[in-house]
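Entry:
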Amino acid sequence: MTEIVAPRLASTVLLLRDAVPFRGIEIFMMVRHHQIEFNSGALVFPGGSVDRNDKEIAANPALYSGGAGLDPDALGFRIAGIRETFEESGILLARPKGAKELVGAKRASEIALAHRADLNEGKITFQTILADNGLVLALDALVPYAHWITPEGMPKRFDTWFFLAAAPPEQLGAHDGKESTDSIWVSPREALEGGETGRFKLPFPTTRNLIRLGKQTSVQGALADAEGMAIVTVMPVMTKTATGRQLRIPKEAGYDGEVFEVGATG
């Protein structure tokens, strides 16, 4: 019997902004480096695994706000989402201590310039960056949107929470040049069309969430809809077919179908 690999806890953040001139919403997405083991070359949202330092931050309420009522795992998912977003895009979902507004674009850029590379290289912890710069993470800026677990039988598996967040004003974001090689603000429609034409490589969960998000016409509308949404865990059941693979997901998860033929390359 093949051993089932335990999934790693992970978080993904869908950063949203209203397009100008107004034509719906745009999402910050990145192209993963072709040498990265997981989803190489794919167009993805910022995200990654929950790490030990995320859990250490969760144990120190002075470093975050908006965490009331959340258990340690839930805190870890949100903290990891904000950290990974900062590492991969430079966008910082945090507030100066005692402030109601998120850190301004100029200050966020200064912090990213001073610390982002060292954070990505493991030379400094996110916890130290927050403490040294008088910041608290804005956990309340994240709205849970989806929960996906990689199918059993895959060699690398993730238990991933997806969150929506309004991008802070004027924080434009940029890829890190290492794990990702390009970044773009793109509408769900344009990203999906790029997946169909071959311009973009889109992972299966990314496609499903882009289709669902494409029904929204504004950031506030998307956030409000997510606030009232019951989240159903999705762990696709994978079977082989004559032409490739078939994935089945729960109907009640609210996506664009239940059974999907994903082909030989998925």
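Helices lie at 52-58, 72-89, 105-120, 126-132, 188-197, 204-213, 219-227.
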